[in-house]
Amino acid sequence: MSDALQLPRRIIPPPAIASRGEAAPASDIVRDVGVVIVAGGSGSRTGSAELKQFRWVSGKPALLHSVQAFMARPDVAVVVVVLPKSHAADPPPWLFQCDVDRLLVSVGGSERHESVVNGLEDLPEEVSVAVVHDAARPLVTDETIDRVIAEARKGHGAIAALPVVDTLKEVDEHGRIVRTVDRTNLWRAQTPQAFPRVLLEEAHVAARRDRVGATDDAALLERLGYPVVVVRGSERGMKITEESDFARAEALSILRE
C-alpha cells in the first residue's frame, strides 16, 4: 500500500447533482465519483477455464455490463477495472468499447481487499465518493447505483442488499440443526457499495495494520464504528458463482427493478 493512501483527505461536500429524471446543465455536473470494479477472481467454482467475468451474459461479456453501467453516469470521473495479473497487461479488446478517457486497468491482489486497495490507489484526487462493485454481478441497475451514491454523499457508507425471505437454520459440523435463526433484521449484502472515499481508505489502512480481511468493504467500516446503511438492491444484482448462475442471470436480465 502506498504512502499516498494513508494520508487523510478532507471531505468537501459536492454541489447538488440533478436526479436521474432531470437534465442538469453540463456546468453543474461534478465528476466526483470513482468506481472500482473488482474483477480479479479466477472463477474456479464455475468449472470453466475462461474467467467468469469475461464470459457472455445477455449479449455481452459480464464485465462489460458493469463498466458501461457506471460510465453511463455523468458524475463518474473514472472506472478502475481490477484484473488478474495474467490479464491486466493485455486486457480483452472489448473492454475498450467504453470511454477510454475514464477507464483505468489495475492489477488484482491475492485477496479481494488487496484488489480494492489497488483500485483505490488509482482514483484521481478529485474523487470524494468511492464505489466498489463486483464484476460477478453484471446486471446492476441504474436505480441501485443511484441509491448507494446518494447515501454516500450524506457522509456514511451504503450497500445494496435484499431482505432475507427464507427460513434460516444454524447447523453443526454433522449437519444437524442447532437452532432456527430469526430473519427479521437480516439482509443479503450485494454490490455496489459506496462510501466517502476518506472513510473507505481509512478502513483499508486499519485492516492492513491489524491484519484482518473481510468479504466486503462495509465490514471494514463497521469494525471501526462508522455507520453503513442498507438500501434496496435488486434480484438482478445476483452474483454469478457457479455454472448454473449463468442461466439464471440470462433469465433475470429481462427484468427491471
TrEMBL record:
<feature type="site" description="Positions MEP for the nucleophilic attack">
    <location>
        <position position="239"/>
    </location>
</feature>
<comment type="function">
    <text>Catalyzes the formation of 4-diphosphocytidyl-2-C-methyl-D-erythritol from CTP and 2-C-methyl-D-erythritol 4-phosphate (MEP).</text>
</comment>
<feature type="site" description="Positions MEP for the nucleophilic attack">
    <location>
        <position position="183"/>
    </location>
</feature>
<dbReference type="GO" id="GO:0050518">
    <property type="term" value="F:2-C-methyl-D-erythritol 4-phosphate cytidylyltransferase activity"/>
</dbReference>
<dbReference type="InterPro" id="IPR029044">
    <property type="entry name" value="Nucleotide-diphossugar_trans"/>
</dbReference>
<comment type="similarity">
    <text>Belongs to the IspD/TarI cytidylyltransferase family. IspD subfamily.</text>
</comment>
<keyword id="KW-0808">Transferase</keyword>
<feature type="site" description="Transition state stabilizer">
    <location>
        <position position="45"/>
    </location>
</feature>
<protein>
    <recommendedName>
        <fullName>2-C-methyl-D-erythritol 4-phosphate cytidylyltransferase</fullName>
        <ecNumber>2.7.7.60</ecNumber>
    </recommendedName>
</protein>
<keyword id="KW-0548">Nucleotidyltransferase</keyword>
<feature type="site" description="Transition state stabilizer">
    <location>
        <position position="52"/>
    </location>
</feature>
<dbReference type="GO" id="GO:0019288">
    <property type="term" value="P:isopentenyl diphosphate biosynthetic process, methylerythritol 4-phosphate pathway"/>
</dbReference>
<dbReference type="InterPro" id="IPR001228">
    <property type="entry name" value="IspD"/>
</dbReference>
<keyword id="KW-0414">Isoprene biosynthesis</keyword>
<dbReference type="Pfam" id="PF01128">
    <property type="entry name" value="IspD"/>
</dbReference>
<dbReference type="InterPro" id="IPR034683">
    <property type="entry name" value="IspD/TarI"/>
</dbReference>
<dbReference type="InterPro" id="IPR050088">
    <property type="entry name" value="IspD/TarI_cytidylyltransf_bact"/>
</dbReference>
<comment type="pathway">
    <text>Isoprenoid biosynthesis; isopentenyl diphosphate biosynthesis via DXP pathway; isopentenyl diphosphate from 1-deoxy-D-xylulose 5-phosphate: step 2/6.</text>
</comment>
